[in-house]
Amino acid sequence: MSLLADLGAIQPIHFALIIPAVAAGILVLIPGYRLGSQINIVSSFLTLLNALAIFHTRPEPNYYLFVDDFNIYLVVLTDFISFTTSAFSASYLAHEKETGRLTRGYARFYHAMFQCMILSMNLALLSNSLGLMWVAVEAATMTTVIMVGIYRTEAAIRASWKYFMLTSLAISLALFGITLIYFTASVTIGSGPAALAWTVLRDNANLLDPAVLNVAFVFAFVGFGTKVGLVPCHAWLPDAHSEGPTPISAVLSGLLLNVGLYALLRFKMIIVGNGLALEPGPLMVGVGLVSLLFGSLMLYRRWDIKRLFSYSSIEHMGLITFAFGMGGPLANLAGLLHMVMHSLTKSAIFFVVGHVAQVKGTQDMAKIRGLTTSHPVIGWLLVVGVISICGLPPSGLFMSEFLLITTTFSREPILAVILVLGLLIALGNLIPRLHALAFGVPEGNLEPLKTAIWPLVLHLGLVLGAGLYLPEPLFAWFQHVAAMLG
Amino acid sequence: MLMTDPKLKLEICYLLSGSMAIVSFALLYQSRMAATINTFAVHALLLGLVVALQADIQAEHNLYLTAAIAVLFKAIAIPLALHFIIRKFDLHRTIEMVVSPGLTMTAGLGLVVVAVMVMRPVTVHSDALVTADLIFAMVVLLLGILMMITRRNAITQVVGFMSLENGLILAMAGVHGMPLVVEISVALTVLVACIVFGMFFFRIRERFSSLDIRHLESDGRVSQ
Amino acid sequence: MLDYVLIGAFAELALGILAVAGRRYGAIGTVVYGGCLVISTGLVLDSVAVLAGVGGGTPPTAVLPFGMPWLPGHFRLDALSAFFLLVASLGGASVSLFALGHSRHPGSHAPDAARILPFYPLFLASMTLVVVADDALMFLFFWEFMSISSWLLVLSNHREKGNDHAAFVYLMMAGIGAGALLFAFGLMAGPQGHYTFEAMRAASHSHLLAVGVFVLALIGAGGKAGIVPLHVWLPLAHPSAPSWVSALMSGVMTKIAVYGFIRICFDLDGPLPWWCGGVVLLIGGITAVMGVVQALMEHDLKRLLAYHTVENIGIIFIGLGLAMTFRFNGLAALAALALAGALLHVFNHSVFKSLLFIASGAVLWATGNRNMENQGGLIHRMPGTALAFLIGSAAISALPPFNGFVSEWLVLQALLSGTVLPQWLLKVAVPVVAAMLALSAALAATCFVKAYGIVFLGRPRSAAAADAQETDRFSLAAMFFMAGLCVAVGVLPTPILALIDKATQLLTGATMAGAEGTNWLWLVPISAERSSYSGLVMLVLICLAAGALRLIIHYVLSHHVRRRSAPWDCGFPDVSPNTQYTASSFAQPIRRTFGATLLAARERVTTPDPGDPSPASIVVVITDHAWQLLYVPVAQAVQFAAGWLNEFQNVSIRHYLAFMFAALILLLLVITPWQ
Amino acid sequence: MAIISESLVQLLQVLLVIGIAPGLTGLIRWVKARLQRRRGPPLLQAYYDLARLSRKEVVMAEHASWLFRSVPYLAFTSVWTAAALVPTFSTSLLFGPAADLIALVALLGSARFVLALGSLDIGTSFGGMGASREMMIASLAEPAMLMVVFTVSIFAGTTFLPAAAEVVRNHHAIIHVSMLLIVITMVIVALAENARIPVDNPATHLELTMVHEAMVLEYSGWYLALIEATASIKLVLYLSLFSCLFLPWGMASANSTAVEVLAGIGIWIGKLGLGGILLAVFETCIAKMRLFRLTDLIGGGFLLGLLSVILMYVFGNI
Q1: In chain C, which residues have their Cβ closer than 8 Å to the Cβ of A301?
Q2: Total domains in the fold of chain B
Q3: In B, which residues are within 8 Å of A175 by CB distance?
Q4: Which of A481, C112, C358, D158 has the greatest number of C-beta atoms within 10 Å?
């Protein structure tokens, strides 16, 4: 149809979509899950290489796909984390298969879906056309819904049903917002693909009708905000995280939330570009703070370890939204930094949690004790992960929270106080949990479990490294994007 | 010969999209499941007609495809499937609404007011048809959501969801020459089709005796 | 100069990594602690050299590629940093020496070294780097790093009951303090983010902003130092760590916190109103009294010492508050005097508190028990430790001619000069604080009579105490090194005051009269006719008198005989060691006098009926009001909020959809007016 | 020349203090006995006691440590040193500059510190009881004494004792309201520190009421003699301090002739005797207090002292 016609000649950028698509096709046909998981890893790695290639040589943007400073780093991050996750899920699935929680057929299905997920997320990030981005986000939702329900336990089906209902309503709202944008753009810019192309919209934002933009932004905010997991549209997130396979939880927290936020930020940039429309900052600040407080308060009274950390994701997404809502070079910088660091840390934590849950055979925190004694490596990695997620040095999140809190307090003291209050509430819950999980007299199964440790070592290593020193080019580029966000 | 008059086409288009809103009200009012499904079929049929008309008016041939999808899937296939499920699970009982129909209708009226209030100033610069189309689309959208949150039953919730999707397609068809409409409508249909049929219902039939999502709601352990 | 500091600190970081790498290797403990000892000793020499003026006037600075490229790690070593570096590395050296000996024969109850060795050097390194940090990011980074490494050290014997709670409270309070400091630096850095200390010094802070920074610094740094009512973490966390780590936490880390307070309030922050100094003064007085009274109620040796840390921090803050008020009123010389007193007490306290903690560590190792009620008679079994502990006790009780007396004497002299302050409120506050200081000094003496008498004197109250063993040579060497320092500084305080004078000149622009070192024998704070003190003269007098006495007794009473027999005790039959006074019975009069009011101490005595052989029992309930008034309500509020919000987590999908819908409609209605 | 005279005076004072102290104790005992219609011991009984004690053999508990044996030395020497620093009959002493009031109080404090330790060393219940009570009393008396010191030093603008004496002498300080307040405080402190009635009864042998006596129960022979001597020197010291601070008249100064010095000695002894007699009368008139009533008494003294200090700060030395 029109889309394929307009895509034009094959470029490196297309491989970001073609590789996963082909891999998915192959994986559906591969019966053996070992071979499948290897192919999964290989194709994810190829996707990562391709992403780096795109990073190196930017293709010409057209109305459908484009690359700029903002989305390319998310693409690289996405493909990197999907690569490590695929490696992790290989060992994870092996264990699941031994314990018989997953049949071979579903393992095959899992791998195919995993590639589809990468495909849709890459598409969502790379697409220049809002419509195409919407399709991609919707596809990503579908695949993850299926993944979440893959265990077919009653709880899993509940979770994915909830996930489906909430997110599909949300993206429908987002679609209406997109339609409205196109509507006003088609009046001034003229109908056709250009009127949906994000680059065009950003450049001609001042031509658009501010009133339409306001309504459109409200719809987009509620729609994509749900994907981000902002309160009060967050309800799908904990269930989806806690019931699905752990690699999927890692991808959800590490990547899918970012994709939602990315879409949201694009809309924000259009609104900001048009001078007359309402300022979206206060809305994002308010919702961000509410999500932060809510998430950190919800950490209490949890018994399921994955659910605990999924609420922590809500908290951090709130923090990032708050940062972008504050705006300004420092706050945006902090937001971008926090986005990356949170993705790496949280996915690493979910890796650890997956190991732990498999070792102990339960997600009930009351049954997990003294990991640093019984399983030193996993236990200490958990300690590092939780310290990092609490924003304590030497983790990169300390850097971002330092910037955010200091700059916010000098601008809006009250907001900063609420912010720190939320962070302290979270700290006050995560630390006793960490004590119980990692220290004390060990409980439960004490046998070691053979697992792929290197992905989470890699993640945490990156986080700690960033906390110690951010390379000059990376940082300069962060600053550039921050300036871009306005 | 009659349909050659563009003015008349606009009138009819206007009428049809307005009637979609009215049918949405009817959906909201319906308290019997079979009737709900039939009403939805009508809703989808109207959508197909509107989109086809828009395709004719805007000379956008892609829209014909969208119209066809709407009619074939939403107006025929899905209602049949739903009827099948009802018969299979023997759900010929009335739906217990969460709130009384009267109250629901009142809320619906309120939503119409909201839609008009929000959309009217938005569309002052554009022609009447687009204005009406967008307003009606938004009404259908909001009523669909209202239906989703006033029903307990999975089927009716899905029906509500599909009706709000009809509203979306209505809006997309209304604005001139929106690209990717076909892709998006396909995506929406796939959304409904694959999820509603492919996944949930079979699983749910595996697990639960009925479709009442009270089974699907609680978080399990309250002590979380 | 600064280069050596940085090299040393990073060498210590490397040692931490090495400890992880070589954890299987048996002698790793010796390597790590030996390395720390060497590095710390080097740092001591380095800091003394800086304070002695070697290497020119301008403080050396360095910029390392650390943190963020546009905010690289700035480091600077001025007199203040150098002095606190001296304190930190001196403590580090002696404690490492103790640990070196201790790690060779770990007791049965000791936590496994693998949980201590990696974090011990990190802890030292972070404390070193905090004092030389020269921008907000570096300062907070290492400040927090200090908290985390010590938190992990507290958790090192994690199997012990209650330690996790201690560690939690500790990290929580550290987090609160870090938040406050983040705010303070945010205020001083401004929205553009001028995070280097030079920029903050250069910036002209408004009156309100300066006060805000002061309050935040008091919460952040003061809380870390342990001022009332932010002290609650200290008596929990310090004793839970291994003894040598407790020594570092109490002796050095609290001093780093004091450094943070001085750096912010005296150096970076703008001019403060007069009442800020008054507030610090009063908080110091209250802290001193509360700390020592709580210490008296305590019969866990290490907790007792921890509470005394609170007391001494109070004394230090009294000095700081005085310095602030004097500085505000333009009395630079008096400000210098007060500040010098505070800084000297910083030095002294770090010395004798480390000494007491490692001595208690030796006791703990020997008897395997922290509870004083199970000790006794250790002076016979471990004479060296007993002597060292005695000197430490005398020093902390501010008895001449030991060092504790000198610093408290200086602070008292500063207080007595407070008559010149024009503000009427201060005219009332200063004498009250002086009274508090006098009271706390006297109570400290009482407390250490109790501690020393119960633990080291009398007869052993348990089998473990009865066959305790003297600790090893390294530990004894460390103890006697610090005991020697206690005596040396007490007898000749002028040299160390000459070093401190550099820092006071930096901050107050004036110098203390007696600090030039011209008058090495007499310590003359203000003027010769005002007051003067010479520990040496006092020591000489005492020695002369003792010598004369000894001669008299030796020659005149040379025929005297000495006979050993059962104790007299008014003829009562000596049943068992249990008839001795216990720590709690010793403290009973004080408990009745002070505890009842300050700590709501309640005693419940249950005596069995006549003929009932069951033993009588006394239960004492001590409540720290800070918990009841400050922390418990907050915790309850959070719990309540969590429970309330939790109700929304178990509703049906329909409701979640309704939330979303409501949000949408609400936002639409909000924007409508602007259309 | 000045050095020689100063050192001579210093030596003379050091010896005189030891020489006179037992006499003062004897005097007080004698006067009390007289007031109680007893014949009482001879005036020199205290000297006889010391001599007899120093001849007796020393009986010590088996598990007494080296600390126990060194306590009498330490206590005696520190009190003696303190006594050497107080201007008694002359304000020009060799070690005058070391005569800082705060240091003086601290020196007495260390004497108490070691005594308490010594009483705990044997590990008997009475020893512990004595130490506990003594320290409790001291924990209130010492701050009270410091309040006195503060008031005086603010008034005189110095903590340097001879100078303070000079100032007080020249300004008739005794009329100052703060000075009057601290006279009361000083009396209370002196009673408490010297274990006199109503705080403690030096003559008691009822174990449950003993404080100071309970501390030294285990000592015998010349150790006990030393401790007795310490106690009486302390009394002399306090009386001299009192006279130096509040009645500093008739003291010789730096450039005064031998005659004046002798006169000063005479006046000083007269003051001591007067003080002793007053103390005896006072002790006879009142009864000993219960232990926990003491906190009210000494605490009251402490608060009075604080009040006087505050007055000093607020009004200065008018």
Answers
A1: 642-643, 646
A2: 1
A3: 168, 172, 184
A4: C358
Confidence of residue A407 (pLDDT cuts 50, 70, 90): very high
Residues of chain C found within 8 Å of residue D111, distances taken between Cβ atoms: none
Q: Where are the domains of chain D?
A: 2-315
Residues C105, C110, C114, C115, CA torsion sign? negative
Q: CA–CA separation, B209 vs C537, rounded Å?
A: 98
C667 to chain A nearest CA, in Å?
A: 6
The residue type of C47 is S
The pLDDT tens digits for D237-292 are 999 999 988 888 888 887 778 888 899 999 999 999 999 999 999 999 988 888 88
Residues B218, C652: C-beta atoms closer than 8 Å? yes
Question: Pairing between strand C617-621 and D58-61?
Answer: unpaired
User: Which pLDDT band, with edges at 50, 70 and 90, does C451 fall under?
Assistant: very high
All residues of chain B having their beta carbon less than 8 Å from the beta carbon of residue A239 are: 219
Contact call for C649 and B224, based on CB within 8 A: yes
pLDDT over 70, % of chain A: 98
End-to-end Cα separation, chain C, in angstroms: 66
Best of C487, C529, C536, C568 to disrupt the D interface (most D CBs within 10 Å) is C568
Evaluate whether residue B186 is within a structural domain.
yes
- Cβ distance D100 to C533 less than 8 Å, yes or no, reads yes
Contact C669 B146 (CB under 8 A): no
Name the pLDDT band for B207 (thresholds 50, 70, 90): very low
Answer whether 0.90 is exceeded by the pTM. Answer: yes
Contact D232, D28 (CB under 8 A): no
**Does A2 score more than 70 pLDDT?**
no
Return the ∠ at Cα C481 (arms to C475 and C484), rounded to 5°. Answer: 140
Domain presence at residue B101:
no
What is the per-residue pLDDT for B208? 39
Asked if the bond preceding C229 is cis, omega within 30° of 0, the reply is yes
Residue B220's pLDDT is 39
B118 within some domain: no
Domain ranges of chain A: 1-237+256-278, 281-486
Structure tokens at C125: 């390194």
B162 membership: H or E segment, kind and range: helix B154-174
* Domain span at B35: 2-96+135-212
Give C71's DSSP letter: E
Q: Do chains D and C touch (3 or more CB pairs under 8 A)?
A: yes
* Whether the bond into C118 is cis, omega within 30 of 0: no
DSSP A400-448: HHHHHHHHHHHH-HHHHHHHHHHHHHHHHHHHHHHHHHHSSS-BS--S-
Question: Is it the case that chain A and chain D have 3 or more CB pairs lying under 8 Å apart?
Answer: no
Tens digit of each residue's pLDDT (9 = 90 or more) over D198-251: 888 877 777 777 888 888 888 988 899 999 999 999 999 999 999 988 888 888
> A470 is written with which tokens?
């951010």
Q: Which of B148, B216, B224 lies at the smallest CB-CB distance from A303?
A: B224
Q: C642-653: per-residue pLDDT in tens?
A: 999 888 877 788
| Residue range B158-184, pLDDT digits in tens | 888 899 999 999 999 888 888 888 888
pLDDT at C218 over 80: yes
Sole residue written with tokens 């509040």: D246
Distance, CA of A231 to CA of A296 (rounded, Å) = 12
Please give the span between the terminal C-alpha atoms of chain D, in angstroms, as a whole number: 38
| Per-residue pLDDT at B221 exceeds 50 | no
Give the pLDDT confidence score for residue D168 in this predicted structure. Answer: 82
